[in-house]
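Support case: user asked for a sample of complex input and structure output to validate their parser. Sending the pair below.
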Amino acid sequence: MSFQPYVPPEQLMKDRSEYARKGISRGKSVVALEYADGLLFLAENPSSTLHKISEIYDRIAFAGVGKYSEFEDLRISGVRLADLRGYSYGREDVTAKTLANAYSQALSAIFTTQMKPYEVEILVGQVGDRPEENELFHILFDGSVADEKGFVGMGGRSDELTGHLRDSYRAGESLEEAVRLAAKALADTEDRPIDAPKLEAAVLDRTRGRRKFRRLDDSEVADVLSSSSVEGGKP
Amino acid sequence: MTGLGAGPGGRPLFGSNPSFSDLVAGSGPDAPGSPPPIQSHPEQPVATFSHGTTVLALKYADGVIMAGDRRAVEGFTIADERIEKVFPADEHSAVAIAGAAGQATEIVRLFQTELEHYEKVEGERLSMEGKANRLAQMIRGNFPMALQGLVVVPLFGGFDERRAEGRLFRYDVTGGRWEEADYHSTGSGSLHARGTLKKGWRRGLDRGAAVQLAVEALYDASQEDVATGGPNPLRGIYPSVKAMTAAGVEIVPEDEVRAAFQTIVGETHEGVRGGGSQAKEDLD
């Protein structure tokens, strides 16, 4: 029979948090912000096929940072939950709140019971018929949820990123303005320029039909950014 | 399943299953979409239920036109005069159904969710071939119900983005799947509709001619088959027609369908077109 040394629970949780934070800080960041017609998600992502931002349901999108395999797993679970709900009940019964709760429960259970916590932070956004009905849930690796308004920055240097966003964010801006602002916040945080092909962008646009989610392709992002070049560092 | 076995939560450890219908089937006997087994009493007819009747599809220059009449019947009663039988399956394809209306709409709903689910999980749309096969499997899954009388026979068509052409598939009750090169129809009035399609169909029809042919075929079916509803100008009921092109699924506006019907009315008045009227007999 083997004896395990006693580790105080405080220490255990602290170690796990540190482990998760370290993993997340190695990845690139994601920004989400509200603009006039809905929600914009922007991420630095060199890959054009392995997405950080995805569609979950009609008016709900998902974004993840950290370990790809882990947030991809969460994303697929979310799509399953949403489609199953929408099929069993009605399409409008699928809400970001339901998903945020499910993610929170799952991440919290993984954090306390599994060998290692998930090294991810995720964002669940829902566009409403009116701007004040938009919802943005930020869920951390330990399952804690924050209901955000206006903008969210997450990833390794989220504090800095959020600081940049706080300085420049204004409600009710156009999509072009929002893309420029978000790209600048990402570049300033990283202290280096980030060009359009390395950016992944998507919107939940309330003016669209049933499925509000739309990806912006590289040329569209490049067009927006070329009208004012995004430079790294402080102006 | 062999291979890497199951991960936590019963999920396969290798690859995620992008099928929504498998997900529904696997979520327990109370899962939505799993109909309760009907006890069969061969000596008793199954309770009456709504039947959708004639639907058809034909290829034309830009893609595929799909059309259906608007009637559902329960025995000799008209259950619904405005039912919809042509449904968009996703952005570039549609499915038209004839048969047990309740069962059919449920299969369509499951099929729509299946395609969207695949697209979201995998990050890209199923191929046209993949969609057609998936529908075949779902119709095959309905075979036990078909034996009880709940027959569902769809048509599936759409614009194949990879091949850049319209494609059309027909099915039978066992889930048999065949690709058609030109046109097809299914449902109680389908024989009559197909006759009209056969005479009128030409390769590379333009849109106007294709809509005209579809409406004529449905009109002819409605003249021969009681379960197929004809155009009803009094109540403003016209067949539903959809066009699948490179631009996606488009509902052909009612004005266009009405105009096609007016052409038929004009031709019948002028006596160019046979209307089934009897010759006057001399009784003297």
